[in-house]
Amino acid sequence: MSADWPHDPDGEEGSEGMRKYGHAVIAKKIDEDEDFPLNRDEFVAEYGEDPIRIDYETIVPMKDIFEQVDQEEFVDFPDLHKALGRAMRANGYWFYEGAEKFVKNTKA
What we know:
Structural class: alpha+beta
Strand order of the largest sheet: 1-4
Order of helices and strands: HEHEEHEH
Helix content: 25-40%
Pfam families: DUF5785
Shape: globular
InterPro entries: DUF5785 (IPR043903)
Low-confidence stretches: none
């Protein structure tokens, strides 16, 4: 793991019976009806130290994922997920096979 976390981001039993990674862990922190438009800096200030599981053995603070996200505000979940996906791929936080094919630039 990247850091010694005081707790597993999935909790004792995992998330809904299974582990959640990256976007799924971040999405659980957002209320789609109330939180959009979502301000990047406010969101990171509130949740930046929270652990995000990248793969089965890597966990990073959420602020590390957002370091390469240039967009300051997101209008909805698809908007946020696209920016996060670009940032995660560009920084090696996307563990899916073939992810490098989807990286067009390093700015999210």
